[in-house]
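Researcher: Re-running this chain for the archive, since the previous output was lost when a drive failed. Same request as before.
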Amino acid sequence: MGKLAFDFFPVILFFAVYKLHEDQTQGIITATAVAIAGSIAQVLYGHIKHGKVETMHWVLMAMVIVLGGLTIIFRDETFIKWKPSVVNWLFAAVFLGSQFFGNKNLSRRMLEKAIPVADAVWLWVNWSWIIFFIAIGALNLYVAYSYDLDTWVNFKLFGMLGLTFVFVIGQTLVLMRFMEQTPAKEPEDG
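Model: Regenerated structure tokens:
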């Protein structure tokens, strides 16, 4: 749970600060500024504590600084509303690109040591993530433009996190089924 809380630290701060304001316009500006500070703190903490920072945290920090900065400068919530979609579509592009560069796609590189499954399964897993990232990015924009700001802020934390959690559980169940079908490797004589 600690890693999950750490990964979502800026989003949780954004949500909490937004909810503390009665004025939505000022709330979104203040929450965005706090999310920028939280993302910077997250990266600094990772660097100091572990000597390295996950690529995902660098990307998220860059996106929140750029799009959040535009939100603050122009006092326009549109930019920060686009951030989750841009980030998810960027992840989709990275997963898609991984299928064409190197001998293993990104899903396989991240999980194959823990989950021994056939090559075709890794292709399916990678495509599943690509489709998920594209869909959740589109869903974010649908909510952002179809509902009020308060609904979008709630969706950003609870909806996107919930959908991601359900997707990961689904992927895990499918992979477990394929793991049971994958024969164990014979130990090498040496």
